Amino acid sequence: MHSYTIQVTPTATTLQPRDVPVPEPGPGQVLVRMRAAGLNRGEFIAAHGLHAPGAPKPAGNEGAGEIAKLGAGVTQLREGERVMGRASGAFAEFALMDAREAIAVPSNLSWEEAASVPLVFAVVHDMLIAHGHLASGEWLLVTGISSGVGVASLQTAKALGARVIGTSGAEAKLQKLQSLGLDVGIRTRSGDFSGEVMRATGGRGADLAVNTVGGSVFAECIRSLAFEGRLAIVGYVDGVMKSEFDLDAAHSKRLTLFGVSNKLRNAEQRAATVRGLAADLLPLIAGGRIRPVIDRVFPFDDLQTAKAYMESNAHLGKIVVRMD
Fold first, then answer.
1. In this structure, what is the dihedral angle of CA atoms 45, 40, 28, 274, given to the nearest 10 degrees?
2. Is a pLDDT exceeding 60 seen at residue 186?
3. What are φ and ψ of residue 157, in 5° steps?
4. Nearest alpha carbon to residue 278 among 133, 141, 86, 37
5. Could you tell me how far CA 128 lies from the centroid of its own chain?
6. What is the signed CA dihedral for 265, 271, 273, 278, rounded to 10 degrees?
7. Residue 210, phi then psi, degrees to nearest 5
8. Burial of 223 (0-12, 13-18, 19+ CB in 10 A)
9. What pTM did the predictor assign?
10. Average pLDDT over the chain, rounded to whole?
11. Could you give the C-alpha distances from 179 to 125, 155, 292, in angstroms and in order?
12. Domains of the chain
């Protein structure tokens, strides 16, 4: 089958096409005939550590397709069923999924939309609901809001009844996000937005902040938080891994800081997040209140071009490859 591998050096990631045998599902797994797969910036940033340097590894982490074969012990799914989920090696004609993470695709979603759900909305559920406890009427701040995770955070927050402030370096992207309910857009790529956050919230600050950018805006996120505010750290596309830390602010405002990563979690912990997504967010997606935002779809053979497009930072929402 046609597939891609990814090789990591200390400074770069490289994709290579490969022809490999179709894998066999092990116990508790399903083999999926992939129809579409989503790109995620974190996979292509060497510093994120999602792939260790060394020999090439199967590339791709999420997708959607039909179940082609069941592994031993899988009874809750059936062959031919449309599913979406995390899948190591998703940039391939066939990929394996943990059956606990295979989610039935709602009938209103296309393959491309389904492939855009598993990772970003699992992350969003983890940081907005499970750990961020975002409530109706609260303020959410999202740095780098035009990313896949950023747009999904906006959509989910609005469905929960929250108000949203987003930062982006592109005014055109902020204008487009107004149609999804963005309350306040701040055009910036720098750590200079806390004043505007405070003005927008009447001096209160954000109840929850999502840092998708990294260390260059970390200190400003702290300054932007309200009393008993929460800060979710989900990415560092700027490559800045260290920042000043205001102990007095964290102490006096009783702040909560947490990371959002699956790197060290075990399979059951990852599956628990998927169950949360299915319980809390899938009904909103199936009901049309949340619809994945796709910037561009590329043919599978143009994955290299899709990766370059993602790295150009021109997109708003998700980038997907389609396997015809």
1. 120
2. yes
3. -60, -45
4. 86
5. 12
6. 170
7. -115, 115
8. middle
9. 0.95
10. 95
11. 22, 10, 14
12. 2-117+292-322 (3.90.180.10), 121-259 (3.90.180.10)
